[in-house]
Request: fold
Amino acid sequence: MKRFLRVLGSALLVLTLVIVGLVLYINYRSEPTYEVNIPTIKVNATSEAKIRGKKLVLSLCAECHRNPETKELTGRRLMDLPEQFGVAYSKNITRHPVEGIGSWSAGEIAWLIRTGIHPKRKTYVPAWMVKLPHISDSDMNAIIAFLQSDDPLVAPSEVKNIESNASFFAKLLTFVGAFKHFDYPTEAKSHPDTTNTVEYGRYMADNVMNCFACHSSDFATNNDFEPRKSEGYCGGGNMMPDFNGVLVPTSNITPDKTTGIGSWTRQEFVTTLSTGFKKDGSILRYPMGRYAHLSETELGCIYDYLRTIPAISKQVPKPPQPQMSANPTEGEKHYYSYGCVHCHGSTGLGYANLQLADKRYPSDSILTDVILHTYKYFPETSMPKWDGKINPNHLPAIIAHVRELGKKSGK
Ligand code: HEC
Ligand code: HEC
Ligand code: HEC
Reply:
């Protein structure tokens, strides 16, 4: 028996050493690198291309790359990344030649966005950076034309990048190949026929806006190569963390009449996505938001396409509300019930940095105007238009709560 225990003991020791060794190896070995063949791309920087590119960058990239305080595309911490993946910062993508991507060629930008492989480091860029393997060459041209344009949004800024710190878990996922890169397309990617609303809607939903990625069952069972083969395609139920750590299930957006959006009219759909308010007056909760930069025509095409996909009968639960403090003030209650907390977090840190608003807008009348007409101050904002949506009697308490968030943070 003793001998058996001794053998078992040494076997466990060996096993432990193997595991420790493997952990150290995965944690400290350099990341896997991939072959990089930068294509030669001649950018056609017409004014239409730059306009289209700006709209795509605002819809697809700004949320992650825009610094919430300065509004520049110089990168930020991704606040809603679950802790188990570590800490991630997006990067400076302004035209600055050293700190930004001003010295990147068009081919390098396209390579990163299409494949997910960093053209300089040759390593995989983590799963939380968007990849667009199926976007058309014409839209890729538009994105690059805009990133290289003289638009103030991409004006060179010397803000330095902050390195991300991936957790062991994230490294393990990369190590075992759970995060996959894409191959660079070998053939031209044509732009869909924009007069065919279903075809164009499919392209915008699947290849550009990646609706299916959040709206299918789970990121782990998504098929990024052929979106429609994702498990539970657009049937919802994928759990997405918000800024308060609350998990928000994505909605069923298939045409099922009772559990999906089968009974929504085209106009209801367009209005909900462009304003960010649902029929019942509640806001679309983060990470869904309003698609302020897509036109009503485009949203209509997406609707037409979503009518054609297989209906899935799946009731998605309502997400829980984040927890208020023990003795909430009237202002805090409104902050939660109107849904400010979903985008701005319970502490004011989220999409924007609300902790700065108290000092930035010392006059109550201006702070009120900023809340009701944010778009006048930040024309490219995705903050909902609150004018007419907030009961004017609630405004003083809401203002007091916003100020309180700034005072509590000491900013
Ligand atoms: C969900 C968040 C997210 C979105 C959306 C996003 N990015 Fe990123 N991006 C990141 C993160 C995080 C990194 C840093 C990755 C790393 O650690 O290397 C990054 C890195 C980059 C880099 C590399 C910069 C460098 O100097 O290494 C470029 C270029 C870039 N993104 C461009 C874009 C463009 C263009 C879009 C829109 C089409 C976009 N990103 C959308 C999160 C995002
Ligand atoms: C980053 C993840 C994400 C992406 C990308 C995304 N959504 Fe959503 N969407 C959500 C979440 C989460 C909800 C649930 C919000 C809530 O409960 O208020 C939602 C809700 C919705 C709703 C409301 C449905 C209802 O029954 O109330 C519609 C419609 C919708 N999304 C359509 C789309 C379309 C169309 C696209 C692509 C253009 C898209 N979404 C892209 C996460 C996402
Ligand atoms: C759907 C997300 C969303 C919701 C809901 C939301 N906001 Fe915002 N808010 C934003 C974004 C994004 C900005 C940053 C403006 C920009 O740069 O686009 C912002 C900016 C602000 C600002 C200006 C901050 C500054 O530093 O200039 C204030 C004040 C503000 N929000 C208050 C509120 C209040 C009060 C509510 C609830 C009634 C609310 N917000 C609901 C997304 C949201």
